[in-house]
Amino acid sequence: MSHVAFPIVFGIALLVFVGTIGGRIRLLATARPARRFDRLPERVQRTIVYAFGQKKFLTGEQPAGIAHALIFWGFVVLGLQVITQFGRALSVNFNIPGFGPNQLLGPPFFVARDLLELVVIVAVSYMLYRRLVVHTPRLFGLGRAEERYRGAPHWEGILILVFILFIMVGGLLADAGRLVWLDIHGNEREFAPLTALVADIIGGLGRSGGHTVSEIGWWLHNLTVLTFLNLLPLSKHFHIITAVPNVFFGELPPKQVARKPGALQTPPAGVARLEPPPTGLTGIASLADVSWKQVLDAFSCTECGRCTAKCPATASGSPLAPRQLVLDIRDRLYAHPAEQRGAVAGAAPLISEDVLWSCTTCMACVEACPVGIEHVPTIVDMRRSLVDQGRMEPLLQQTLENFAKQGNSYGKSSRMRARWTKGLDFTIPDARTEPVDYLWFVGDFASFDERVQTASQRVARILNETGISFGLLYDGERNAGNDVRRVGEEGLFEMLVEHNMAMLRDASFEAIFTTDPHSLNTLRNEYPAYGLDKPVYHYTELLAELVADGRIKLTTPLTGTRVTYHDPCYLARYNRITDAPRKLIAATGAELVEMPRHGTNTFCCGAGGGRIWMDDSKLEERPSEQRIREAQELGTIDYFVVSCPKDLAMYSDAAKTVGASFEVAELTALVERALGVAEPEVLAAPAGRER
Amino acid sequence: MKTLVPLKQTVDLVEELELNDDGTDVEREYLTFKLNEWDEQALEEALLIKDAVGGEVTVVALDEPDADQSLYGARAKGADRAVKLTGDFAAGVSSHARAAILAGFLESQSFDLVLIGVQTPEDLDGQTGVILAGMLGLPHASVAVAVEPDGDALKVTQEMGAGVTHQLRIVGPAVVGVQAARAAPRYVPISRIRAAMQEGGLEQQPAAEVEAVSGLTVRRMYAPQSSSHAEMLGADADAAAARIIEIIRERGVLKV
Questions:
Q1: Which residues of chain B neighbour A413 with C-beta distances below 8 Å?
Q2: pTM of the model
Q3: Which of A316, A672, B211, B212 could form a disulfide with B100 if both were Cys (CB 3.0 to 4.6 A apart)?
Q4: Is the interface score ipTM higher than 0.90?
């Protein structure tokens, strides 16, 4: 099989490939810098887990996920097959050194090769079945936000699957035909059951027939591999080359202040901390402002749509779909590379404003993406540019002005912030004048919203009973700035941080706890960069600890009460806190019935990332209402339990709109009842009950 | 076009107002101050004119609490010059005195147009602009909802009653009291305000010494008293409907 033609074909194919990939590398090299070369051991580890281990495929939607993992691993092993088949252009008995029939690695390679050829053929057939017969919607575009994607041609996915099939079948025929042609026996047959089986079937064609089959298979395999290689950088299958580095260069979890020894703390998500914009840049306004990691993100998108399928904005009919957003950036890079160097590529913005403002920053897209694309930080970068130009809707503008003037979204005087404490029959210490163990960072909603004030008072009563030492910053507290930063108002975020840090420096405490997951996220993951050196807890973590210690004794179990629990995005997905609230629910004796989407796979209420300060009347159905309907499917439940002040407000409204058969209750309402101190009917927490 | 916009600090109403001991004024010690919202509209209109035809915008404020903040905010939005007139204004400044101080400053300036907020929460009669125009002997229009350059002149749109608008052509220089700008006041990001502060560049000069009497003295100020209360009708639709009918009858709207 020593072919003269093949080295020429191979050479040409390689030259073309180098040319195309050179163009792609130029796009990377022209892009702005990004610091992604730090903490290399952690990067190697995540690459092993998420790229080579295919973790997100194994834990995500099935059976497509497993099918992908099998094809991936198949390709890793079958890379050896490709080298072998290329080598056979020079010698018909070429084997990679060490992989010969009577060498150590030969037999295991034959077994693995045959097994994986079979597995990949089956998996690819299933993938083709999904594309051609089932027409899985996720692959063709979801919601109104992906109309453009739906309209685009989809033959490429099918073509690639056919190519993979050709490579498998070609390799198989080349090997089987060779066994017949050269009448090979021994290890090459005994350890290769599939190849041997095919060889048996074509055995009747005789040695010359075997030669023909082998030639056809060999050319089919090698030509398809070379065509495939050249198609990669031109197609969504570029991810075969870029996905592994994209995972490697992903944002690593921020370093946090260590908690007490022995306390388990799961690292947060990588994008839990946002980077400030680089000096001299306010945000992303055009391709000239895009970093190489963002270019690599665009290269790596496989158009699988796992992000869009999880996106609350897409699900509620808004113009945002994360996949479309990444593809729009990619298409622009390919169509107008000169924009990277400052050329103006027409009047159309890179991504339109209504798309950018639709994001709730719930991070479901980043969580779902198997190749490590970071949609949310990119959206925030683009929002920063809009904010810099003052482009935003009036309600949001008013809210930002309120923050700037009063330090809270309500525009109320900061002297009103701790007014909810007036409903208590004890005084919470002022941490600025009296040392305390825990500083309670209350947050805006829990301080100002009447419905949530009731919950804040309840937390205060429960903690007061335990005798632990805790205090407040009173009128010294300002909004922590989590959502202000995610709106894209970095300067305002810094101003809020500076104020809060000055107050925190004046106060004496050992640890912070907060009732608000949004505040928790920025205090825990972003404030350390501004000097905060104390651990930060969510109140459910603190209460769960106190229950475990026996300092809170739940003596009246809520036997027979069925509840479901909604994981807040900023608690579960951003900070991986999912156990503490469940432990608390279990301790109350209530029965927890999980919604299909729970834990890190939770569904957003629609309030995050500043969305709560924007108009949501144009949505087809609010995410919160979809969520209430999801809970309705669980059969009879008594309470929809929340552990985030914004959730209490959002879901109380949504439950009314939908006409839910259950009540929305903040977690401590269950706890207080299990303490045996509150009557059942106060669970729903009507506004201003204590006052 | 050279436009000049006087800015005034007014009481921020998010804080609860209390009357002083002799009941002639609000207690000023604990108040916080912010830029008068009508002045914000005037500034926006000035910036819109600059955006459209170029020129220069100058803002000027008396050294009242947090005036620096407002001046730098205006600079960050696009005002070219910011001037602070220093003096002791702790006891408050009447509209007459304010107009006289501004007139004193304006006499040394060259300008084509003065845009001033039509009123402030403390001057609901909208006097300052009128008095200022009178002192400077310039044409004046008030309650403007649009001020647009029109050749060598200005086209001023005024809002009259019952949705009627009224267009005037004024040959400047003129003083115009602005009710609303053509667009909502723009947002200026904090980073830009901070950059403006770092840059500095506030011009300071002493306010003119003026003798201006308003002719009015406040004898007594009253806290607003709630004269009626909302009545909550409850969740039961039938009961609520019955009560609504009852109320309509009580008020004599429905005779049967």
A1: 14-16, 32
A2: 0.91
A3: B212
A4: no
